[in-house]
Input
Amino acid sequence: MKGIVVLLALLSLSTAVIFNDTCDLVGSFNEYYAGVSVDLEFGNSLTVTVPNGLQVPNNTVIMIIQMQGGEIDTSESPEYGTVQESDEIFPGRYEFNVVTNVELVSSNTIACLEYLLEHEYSSRAPNYRFQIISVPFCNDTIITPGSWTPWNGISGGVVTLITQHLKITGDIDLSGIGFRGGIDIQVQNNVAGRDKFAYRSMDNPSQAPSNAVKGEGFIGSPRQSQQEFSTYPNGNDCARGA
Output
């Protein structure tokens, strides 16, 4: 799947924000941090996992985006995959904010925000994932296309910036950096007790598979997408359903 989105915007933010008059950006210019939790009581801080010793600098503009989550119809029927409205957390919902202070706690970072969050975000098990992304904030921006950071199951896969004027020096190709497709596996027909026309089935390493692996999506990630376990509802990450 292609990268989720390229977002361009001009926002009215604090004058303390790291602002550049001109930005010359090459390739992957965002930093990505997997979301852990949000302070639901006060709504002005969140906890993220910081990879490879990176830190979120103060006064950095960030994007908070819910990548996965929600409930679907899981019945063995053509209705499988129909979205069920069950809570206030919606994949694809996002907002911008500014980091004012950071505190390192164990392997995670608590980032305090300048503005109250407008929405709720969650990374609760098994299939909810949100991330925060550092966002270049520029008046004039030149982008030279290069390599991009793919979605890895917890972060990446989104390209975002805030700018007044934009120049792109070549084609931006985001193919393959978004949700990962189902991998190619050898399936066996006529496995006893298994329906090759099913809408859902479980990828069981101890059994010969009779259904192909589902692709990754907002509802979850199959075990075969290099996850340790499936985050699809009830582990049913094979067959033809969504």
Remarks:
- Residues 1-12 have pLDDT under 50 and may be disordered.
- The two ends are 15 Å apart (CA to CA).
- The longest strand covers residues 94-105.
- Residues 52 and 67 are 22 Å apart (CA to CA).
